[in-house]
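Re: weekly structure request thread

Next one in the queue (179 aa):
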Amino acid sequence: MKTAIVICGQIGSGKSTVSNCVASRMSNKVVSFGKYIRQMAHLSDRPDSRKSLQDLGDGLYRQIGAVGLLEGALDVAAVNDEDSVVFDGVRHEEVLEEIRRRAGQTIAIYLTVGQEERFRRHRSRSSGDMTLEKFQAIDSHAVETGIVDLANHCDVIVDASQPLPSVLKDLLAEILLGQ
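Done, posted below.
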């Protein structure tokens, strides 16, 4: 990889939205760990519920490690050595470090948003029965709990509770400064 832009954050922080917007504006490919996990769930006839995907992702990480998880996601996205990419949904420090090792240049960005706003966002795209208690349960799954610590390993922290155009403006400015 030439350049890697890594977008990290908790559930409902805007990772996928921001990743897709940044990739579109910079003509980069998106490497989505969520897409890779969903594909693995489909291949093994697992349900695609949030908990099932979290359990599968956690199990895969334990089984194949950071390198295997990264290679699987790169394969699904059909990335080659000459591509610049935006990574959506990195959840482990070891995966971030492996990306840094492989890419010519890496900028890691952590999106921060308060729990109330993250719940509101998640509820708006979930089935009608999402409660705060259910959100807190999925937010406290083992695969999610270490994400907050990733902020300490990122180059930039962005307040993603702002409107999307403001977030993108701040983010793109930071990316351009880092290049």
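The first strand starts at residue 3 and ends at 9. Residues 3-32+83-178 form a domain with the Rossmann fold fold (CATH 3.40.50.300).
Next request, please.
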